[in-house]
Amino acid sequence: MNKRVPPRRPSGALPRKPAPARQFPVDEPTELLVFLLAKLAGQGRNSVKSLLAHGQVSVDDRVETKYNCPLKPGQVVTVSKEKKSAEPGLVGLRILHEDDDVIVVYKEAGLLSIASPQETELTAYRQLTAHVRRTNEKNRIFVLHRLDRETSGVMMFAKSERVQQRMQDNWNEVVKERSYVALVEGLVKKTQGTISSWLKESSTLKMYSSPHPNDGQHAVTHYKVLKASRGFSLLEVNLETGRKNQIRVHMQDIGHPVVGDKKYGSKSKAINRLGLHARVLSFEHPTTGQIMRFESPIPKSFLSQFGEKE
């Protein structure tokens, strides 16, 4: 019985061409990750982030990896099938400072700080672990604090368990300044104030302020109005305590939820993200004792709500 032999490609035949790149014109102001998720509706969030990580996304023929890259009408976003780099760079993350003890980064909105054991999503923790292991495969990083997925700004990790323990055990003394800016709904009439409550977590994992004193974790938030209009207010927020979702709950408590925070009462989608940004982090270095301070600019999308140009 003769076996069927598959036909050979003629010696002069050209190899199969790669699939053509897809181009998407931008019709309205938005951010790159939001735009891609809308245009590539058949792909999951992780898949889209992978395209960014591997240099497969260009804006006007310039490779772009930043989640929050602002897009304007008239620009063209190109998605290529071809990976530009075998080793992905940092996505949604920028290193501000690194030494033997700590690593300080700027995290964009949309990136998880750290995932649960069941999740495999690209996170700040996973990317920085890969980063430190490029020099020594035994290197690790350790969590000091977290930012919510949709919160952008400055955060840091320890590079040893010893440093993590030392800093967390004395967190209130070590951290000299930790301030945020919050874009909230409505006109906040009181130009500054302090919100104090006892926070608890419901069975649906939502935080709330208990009506009973000493019932839960004490949380204290100080705020000052930076800009205000009828529709929105921009607040500088300083944390005296660092509880889960503290700012988001306290803004809801005073009747001015953080923009984009549907979980805690927001009705506005003015900026297509959560209106919360970790602006300043200042701390005493665990080895040198030196005071280190890192500040990131207020997101342009926050300021644009008050007539300031992007």
Biggest beta sheet summary? 11 strands, mixed
CATH superfamily of the largest domain: Pseudouridine synthase
Number of helices: 7
By DSSP, the count of extended strands is 17
Q: Cα-atom Rg, whole angstroms?
A: 23 Å
What structural class results from the helix and strand content? alpha+beta
Q: Can you walk through the features of this model?
A:
By secondary structure, the chain is an alpha+beta fold. The protein folds into 2 domains: 22-79, Structural Genomics Hypothetical 15.5 Kd Protein In mrcA-pckA Intergenic Region, Chain A (Roll), CATH 3.10.290; 93-306, Pseudouridine synthase (2-Layer Sandwich), CATH 3.30.2350. It is 17% helix and 31% strand. It is built from 7 helices and 17 strands. The strands form 3 sheets. Strands 7, 8, 9, 10, 11, 12, 13, 14, 15, 16 and 17 form an 11-stranded mixed β-sheet that branches. It has a 4-stranded antiparallel β-sheet with strand order 1-6-3-4, with no helix packed on it. Strand 14 (217-228) and strand 15 form a beta hairpin. The radius of gyration is 23 Å and the shape is globular.
